[in-house]
Target: Serine acetyltransferase
Amino acid sequence: MSFLARMREDLEAARAHDPAARGDVENGIVYSGLHAIWVHRLTHRMWRVPPLRFPARILAQTARFLTGIEIHPQATIGRRFFIDHGMGVVIGGTAEIGDDVMMYQGVTLGGRSLEKVKRHPTIGDRVTIGAGAKVLGPITIGAGSAVGANAVVVKDTPPDSIITGIPATFRHRDSARETLPAVDPAEYIDPALYI
Model:
C-alpha cells in the first residue's frame, strides 16, 4: 500500500473515531496524532536500513517536540491507528500495535526491564486505550479489548476484555450490553462540513 493510500486510511480512521472531526483537509492540518503517525511511518521505514537509524531517531524526536507524542521508530504500528488528543503519548521501541487501534492522551506503552529483549506490549486489533493508561512490559492485550482510563496493565489479557484498575484486572465484555459504540460518529456527521 502506498504512503498516500495509508494517509487516506488514517484520515478515514480519524473521521470514524472522532465525532468532532470535520474534514480531511482540516484534520490533516490540525490533528497532531495524525502528524505523529505519518512521521512514524517514515521513520519506521528508515529504521529498517541500519545507516538511517540515527536520522530516523532525529526525525522522531523532532516530531515529539512538535506534537507532544513520542513514538520510537522501531515500534510496529498497524493500519488505521488513531491517537486522539495525543499529548503525552509514549510508544516504546519493541511495542507492536494491531489494526484499528484507538488511543487517547497520556497513554504509555512502556517497558519494565533494561534488558535488550522485547520489553514493550503487543496490542491486538480493535483495541481502545483510555486516557492516561499505562501498559507495561512484554504483555499482550487481546483483540477487541478496551483499557480504561488511568489503568496500569502489567499482565496479559484475553480478547474482548474490559481492563480497569491499578493494578488492572479484566472482565470479559458483555456482548448483550456492549454491541454499540459509546459514541456513534454517524450521529454527529454533517456532510456539509466536509471539504
